[in-house]
Design brief:
Layout: E1 2-8, E2 12-17, E3 23-28, E4 33-37, E5 42-47, E6 54-59, E7 65-70, E8 74-79, E9 84-90, E10 96-101, E11 110-115, E12 119-124, E13 129-135, E14 141-146, E15 152-157, E16 161-166, H1 168-179, H2 188-201, E17 207-213, E18 219-224, E19 230-235, E20 239-245, E21 250-257, E22 263-268, E23 274-279, E24 283-288, E25 293-299, E26 305-310, E27 317-321, E28 324-329, E29 337-339, E30 344-349, E31 352-357, E32 365-371, E33 390-393, E34 401-407, E35 413-419, E36 429-435, E37 441-444, E38 447-451, E39 458-462, E40 467-471, E41 478-483, E42 489-494, E43 497-502, E44 507-513, E45 517-522, E46 528-533, E47 536-541, E48 546-551, E49 556-561, E50 574-578, E51 581-585, E52 591-596, E53 602-607, E54 610-614, E55 620-624, H3 628-637, H4 641-650, H5 656-664, H6 668-671, H7 678-688, H8 691-703, H9 708-722, H10 725-735, H11 738-748, H12 751-764, H13 767-777, H14 780-789, H15 793-802, H16 806-818, H17 823-840, H18 951-954, H19 971-978, H20 982-987, H21 991-1002, H22 1011-1019, E56 1022-1025, E57 1034-1037, H23 1059-1074, ...
Antiparallel strand pairs: 1-28, 2-3, 3-4, 4-5, 6-7, 7-8, 8-9, 10-11, 11-12, 12-13, 14-15, 15-16, 16-17, 18-19, 19-20, 20-21, 22-23, 23-24, 24-25, 26-27, 27-28, 29-30, 30-31, 31-32, 33-34, 34-35, 35-36, 37-38, 38-39, 39-40, 41-42, 42-43, 43-44, 45-46, 46-47, 47-48, 49-50, 50-51, 51-52, 53-54, ...
Helix pairs in contact: 3-4, 7-8, 8-9, 9-10, 10-11, 11-12, 11-13, 12-13, 13-14, 14-15, 15-16, 15-17, 23-24, 23-25, 24-25, 25-26, 26-27, 27-28, 28-29
């Protein structure tokens, strides 16, 4: 049972599903009717007009009506939109048990009710009258229901009978009355008389067709099969009986026994041959109709069950009990499916395995592959969870098809099916089976992993279903396995987290929080993984570093990555489906809704504007979707502005959501193209500094009588910030801000308008305004007049005297004396001021000399970007589907790699499989050495280097009108400004900025080891071309982005090193290592580490390869250093055995791991550490290469060592080594650092060191970077 929803309430006596919406109506014993949304678990409404328990309830098929019947003898019809009772039907004389609308209410507006008054009644809810009273039962009638398609009614009573009634007569009568409406008035009297007769004696319109007797006690429930002539009944004799009907009779088919108390209700499953019943014994039982046996039982402690209901179209059931109700399903409906190669999808429908080929015909073609056998009793019944739950296709085996079919039968099982890819339907090998917990997944070409459900161990098996290895998971509570993205890796589901685990080296590569994981979907290029949870999606990179996490309010059903070959959305756009919607998610965390769904669908594949899905019947469906919004956001995030503006111009992007999104992301100029509403346009225009657009919006708002003062004030502030004084002037004029307007005229030198402001202040009677304007104009006489008019005579006198205005001074003096003022002290103050002015050579305050200009002079340039101008935006070319590979074609060496198809980076065969070691010259002879922070200010060097131009050159002209063109930018300055890669700065000659970049990105310190690489970058970026005789050579730059034409100022230099060069060096290092030439091998890998910082990767695939090369070089350098330490510690048995053990935990190629295990096994056995030797021998025997014929002698030796060690079973020496715990190696002390112990990392190569031992020191492995510094990391492109 899968519980979808559970409520807590009083005892539930009646239940009904809404036919279309996710609603369920529950009538309670306390008289309340509750309307629930079971999808989100909330009460939508409550209806409380019944007195006493409400035992029956039902939804109308098409109208917003609910009918209910209760112990108050009333039938009520409710309108759930109006939220009130429309009318009440009265007539029953006792409790009403059930009520039901006719299945075809548009033609027959009938309600059927059953009552304890021993009758059934049919009502016309349009006329609100009783059509017929069905009498015949002699005890309480416990239920009654219509047949879904025929003119039949079934009723069950405590008189131990089930009756089937024929309503054909009533139907014909009603149809006849409908056709004879003109005669309805004449028949009114006889109709009234018939109603009275019907009340007393019943009518002949509905007759009893069958009376079914067989129960020993009262019958509580009876129901029809939706399609077959079958009946089911449930009674107090603890039995469920099946009955069959014909045209003339009905008879008992079988009795289903198993309940331990009264059976309350039963029904036929709408989609499967099942009967579901519930009882007062606190259980729900499922019965197989064809086998007539019980197949499942669900118990609930403490609550008796009373009622059952089934959804008409969905696979949902509901059961009411003493303390509420539950909505549940008997099985999951998600079809088991798995992606095959290219355009193929494998899925299970019924008991058949199909392959759906998207590339053939429109919509694809289904090709049957195999019939699935079902083992076990549970597997023989459909509809109860016996269908397969998971499929896994072997992507690592191109030679044949391998599929794992997993189900939950008998606690979990799998079946391995093998077939030919060329003739899939006729070449199926019988499946091999086994038990597992959750899904089983493929690890490589010829092996797969399953989780043992008893010991919770990871079991690795080959395609012959033979166990080759058992691995203890890194945590104890692993609940399931998922694909790890590449061979050899698994994603472990453990409680609320996912763990990326490498089986071969038993290392934990990453961990991420993801509660209630349902499935895992890897992107087509393997760079990202979407972990689909019950209520959310977590997107991470291939190392399980989280990129984003989103949550949803409803359950998430499925998800698929976009695989469009063009458009740039492949592996960047994740689409997922919920119960009713298709939504999208971007790695940046942006989400949105694409479309709604009528029924739940499961997304399998997304290509351009098509979503390929499977429905719940496992039928392929193709949906049309519009991903414009998602592609728009993706282009914006990737800074593809040409594509952004092309979509703005040609797509229907609109709505407040997109405008708010653009504002939040800092692109108001793009949002401006979507908005016509003036207020919003005004706000966006101010945000992007578009004064013209803001003025247009301000004029429109002013006409709409908006708050003009505030709007013009904001516009004036922005114009002032830009220095656009004409717009500032207009804004101050419209807001009547006279003081600021006067000051503006002063600083712009407009004395004419400043004099007008003086006159305006005189007209307004503004004393301070007059004085202010006079001061700005330098008009001393006006200032004296203002002071005199305002009554400040002493100040007026001083102003006149100091400015040499004799007449005005005398007039003011007379006025002061007339008012009996103290002139003596005032004259003394004036003379003191004059004396002070003479000493300091003071000058009178005068306004500045105006500098007149012919036009506006904004001081802050606000350039229009391409995003602000639609006409300037050039759409970018659509991205082509390119496959840039660095490896050699597999056809060239297929025969040599047959046994090592899984070799790669450790156990990882993917795009970097070319780096795997070659084993052509494998030899175990004795002729070799094997034996038994904040970025801060980026500085001037990181900014755009501007090239100064000489203005004088533009002035040179002659009579022909020739003018020298402006000089362009030097290539070196373009390279520095266009890239943050150190090699580009070196090519431009900026050694200081390049070294600074390396220090900031990877904490590089000892640059002497990079001298050759840096000089190569500098010399390889230019060529010298000889000129004409008598002239010097010309230096010409070599560019790497000029394939489609000269890139202009966007140019970047060509580098002398490529990823292919590093691949060759890696392979040479492998050969030296295998031949025992450890010094040469270490020098080769160290050279790779020193060249990687100056290699520029051109594709994401190359970037991943370069980063993995760092890991390969680090692991091999560590292994070689440990090998050297083993030679030095030869006399110390403890230390030499420890080092040999650590040697085996370096992540080497399988062929090299075999050598290390051989060495460690010999050392441990020699020093009598037999337990450790046995573990090495077991690991050696688990390697795939050990089965090779040329390793037969080593295999025999390992088996003897294991046998002898298991006999001795003791360790002579105590070692600092525990192979049951996950650890990394301290690259300085060569000791284990276990999972919970603190450590420091080299920011470049990732070497681990014990905390505080090597912090702020040069890394021992790479010899380049400082350990323990937190940096951005290596920049590869």
């Amino acid at each position: 049972m899968l519980t979808k929803f559970e409520s807590k309430s009083a005892r539930v006596k009646g239940l009904a599903f809404h036919p279309a919406r996710p609603w369920v109506c529950a009538s309670l014993h306390n008289g309340v009717i509750q309307l629930w949304d079971y999808r989100v678990g909330t009460v939508i409404d409550r209806f409380e007009e019944h007195d006493g328990p409400v035992r029956g309830v039902d939804f109308h098929v098409s109208e917003p009506l609910i009918v209910s019947g209760g112990d108050d003898y009333k039938i009520k019809v409710w309108d759930y939109k109006l939220k009130r009772c429309l009318f009440t039907l009265l007539g029953h004389l006792d409790y009403i048990r059930t009520v039901q609308f006719h299945p075809n209410p548009s033609q027959f507006p009938w309600i059927l009710s059953a009552s304890d008054d021993q009758t059934l009644r049919l009502w016309d809810f349009h006329k609100r009258s009783c059509l017929s009273v069905l009498t015949g039962h002699n005890h309480y009638v416990m239920c009654a229901s219509f047949h879904p398609s025929e003119d039949l009614i079934v009723s069950a009573s405590l008189d131990q009978t089930v009756r089937v009634w024929d309503t054909t007569g009533l139907r014909k009568k009603q149809m006849g009355e409908t056709m004879m409406d003109p005669m309805a008035a004449r028949a009114a009297t006889s109709s009234a008389a018939m109603n009275v007769q019907a009340e007393l004696f019943g009518t002949n319109d509905v007759v009893v067709k069958y009376v079914l007797e067989g129960h020993d006690r009262g019958v509580n429930w009876a129901c029809f099969h939706p399609t077959l002539p079958l009946l089911a009944s449930a009674a107090d004799d603890r039995q469920v009986k099946l009955w069959r009907m014909s045209e003339t009779k009905a008879w008992e088919v079988d009795t289903l026994r198993g309940h331990a108390n009264n059976v309350s209700s039963c029904l036929f499953h709408p989609k499967h041959d099942l009967v579901i019943s519930n009882s007062e014994d606190r259980s729900i039982r499922v019965w197989d109709v064809s086998k007539r046996v019980g197949v499942q039982t669900f118990r609930r402690e403490g609550d008796r069950f009373w009622i059952l209901a089934a959804h008409r179209s969905q696979n949902l059931l509901a059961a009411g009990h003493d303390s509420g109700m539950i909505v549940f399903k008997l099985e999951r409906e998600r079809p088991a499916s798995a992606h095959g190669p290219s355009n193929q999808l494998y899925y299970v429908r019924g008991r058949e395995l199909f392959m759906h080929d998207y590339g053939r015909a429109q919509g694809g073609v289904d090709v049957p592959i195999a019939s699935l056998r079902r083992v076990g009793q549970q597997a023989q019944t459909d509809g109860i969870g016996s269908a397969p739950r998971h499929l896994a296709y072997n992507q690592y085996n191109p030679a044949e098809g391998n599929i794992l079919v997993c189900s939950d039968i008998d606690g979990g099982s799998y079946e391995l099916i093998t077939f030919s890819l060329n003739n899939a339907g006729n070449s199926v090998t019988d499946g091999k089976r086994g038990s597992c917990m959750g899904p089983a997944v493929f690890l490589g070409r010829n092996r797969f992993a399953a989780l043992d459900r008893h010991q919770r161990q990871i079991i690795v098996k080959n395609l012959q279903n033979e166990t080759t290895k058992r691995v203890q998971p890194p945590v104890a509570n692993v609940e399931g396995l998922f694909d790890g993205g590449t061979s050899g890796r698994l994603l472990l589901k453990a409680e609320d987290r996912a763990i990326l685990f490498e089986v071969q080296s038993r290392r934990v590569l990453g961990e991420i929080t993801a509660p209630k994981i349902k499935t895992v979907v890897w992107s087509p290029d393997g760079s990202k993984v979407a972990i689909v949870c019950k209520y959310g999606v977590v997107i991470a990179d291939r190392q399980l570093e989280q990129l984003c996490s989103i949550s949803d309010n409803v359950r998430i059903k499925s998800g698929a990555w976009d695989v469009s070959p063009t458009g740039g959305t492949a592996s960047q756009l994740f689409l997922y489906t919920t119960l009713n919607h298709v939504k999208y998610c971007l790695p940046s965390g942006d989400t949105g809704t694409i479309r709604t769904l009528d029924t739940p669908l499961y997304a399998m594949r997304a290509v351009k504007d098509q979503l390929f899905c499977l429905d719940r019947e496992a039928r392929a469906r193709v949906l049309s979707i519009d991903t414009t919004e998602a592609r728009f956001k993706l282009a914006l995030a990737n800074k593809k502005y040409g594509q952004v503006m092309h979509m703005v111009k040609n797509s229907r992007l609109c709505g407040r959501a997109i405008v708010a999104y653009l504002q939040s992301k800092g692109f108001p100029e793009v949002a401006l193209h979507f908005v016509q509403e003036p207020k919003t346009r005004f706000r966006l225009a101010l945000a992007c500094g578009d004064i013209e657009a803001a003025m247009e919006a301000a004029f429109a708002l002013e006409q709409q009588s908006e708050s003009g003062r505030e709007i013009w004030g904001q516009l004036g502030s922005e114009a002032l910030r830009q220095g656009n004084h004409q717009v500032v002037e207009m804004s101050y004029q419209r807001t009547k801000d006279f003081d600021r307007l006067s000051f503006l005229y002063c600083i712009t030198g407009d004395t004419d308008k400043l004099r007008k402001m003086l006159k305006i202040s005189q007209m307004r009677g503004d004393i301070m305004g007059r004085y202010h304007n006079a001061l700005l104009l330098g008009d001393a006489a006006e200032r004296v007049s203002v002071l005199e008019a305002s009554g400040n005579l002493p100040l007026a006198y001083m102003c006149a005297r100091l400015h040499g205005l004799t007449e005005e001074a005398e007039r003011v003096k007379v006025a002061i004396e007339t008012n009996e003022g103290d002139m003596e002290s005032l004259i003394a103050k004036v003379e003191a001021c004059e004396a002070a002015n003479d000493k300091s050579a003071a000058k009178l305050l005068q306004p500045p000399t105006p500098i007149f200009r012919a036009e506006n002079w904004p001081t802050l340039e606000i350039p229009k970007s391409a995003l602000a101008d639609l006409t300037a935006a050039v759409p970018e070319d659509p991205e082509e589907d390119r496959t840039d590979t660095l490896h050699v074609a597999p056809a060239a060496s297929s025969a040599e790699w047959d046994d090592d198809m899984d070799a790669g980076f450790g156990d990882d065969a993917g795009p970097s499989a070319n780096l795997a070691a070659d084993d052509d010259d494998f030899d175990f002879g004795g002729g070799d050495d094997w034996g038994d922070e904040d970025l801060g200010d980026l500085g001037d060097d990181f900014g755009d280097a501007e090239v100064e131009t000489e203005d004088e050159m533009g002035a040179i002209s002659d009579d022909t009108g020739f003018q020298m063109p402006a000089s362009g930018r030097l290539p070196a300055s373009c390279w520095v400004s266009n890239s943050s890669h150190a090699s580009d700065h070196v090519a431009a000659g900026g050694m200081a900025s390049a070294l600074q970049l390396l220090n900031r990105q990877i904490a590089a310190s000892d640059f002497s080891v990079l001298k050759d690489s840096l000089m190569g970058c500098y010399l390889g970026s230019m060529i010298s071309v000889p000129g004409i005789p008598g002239s010097g050579n010309m230096a010409m730059p070599l560019l790497r982005n000029d394939s489609a034409g000269h890139p202009g100022p966007e140019s970047l230099p060509r580098t002398y090193l490529t990823a292919k060069d590093l691949v060759t060096a890696i392979r040479n290092g492998y050969k030296f290592f295998q031949g025992g030439k450890f010094n040469d091998s270490r020098a080769t890998f160290l050279d790779v580490l020193h060249k990687i910082p100056v290699v520029v990767a051109t594709t994401p695939q190359e970037q991943n390869e370069v980063k993995e090369m760092v890991t390969i070089a680090r692991e091999y350098i560590t292994a070689i250093r440990i090998k050297g330490a083993m030679s030095e510690a030869g006399s110390d048995p403890v230390r030499s055995t420890e080092l040999a053990a650590y040697f085996t935990h370096c992540n080497l190629q399988p062929i090299h791991l075999l050598l290390t295990l051989r060495t460690a096994m010999g050392a441990a056995f020699k020093h009598k550490n037999y337990i450790t030797a046995a573990s090495f021998a077991r690991r050696l025997l688990e390697l795939p290469d050990i089965s090779n014929q040329r390793n037969a002698e080593l295999k025999s030796k390992a088996m003897k060592v294991r046998q002898k060690s298991e006999q001795m079973a003791r360790n002579e020496h105590q070692l600092n080594y525990d192979d049951t715990k996950s650890f990394v190696i301290d690259c300085h002390a060569f000791a284990p650092i276990y999972q919970n112990q603190p450590s420091s990392l080299c920011p470049y190569c990732g070497s681990h060191y014990a905390e505080n031992t090597m912090t702020n020191s040069i890394c021992d492995n790479c010899g380049l970077c400082i350990v323990g510094v937190n940096t951005l990391g290596l920049v590869t492109g």
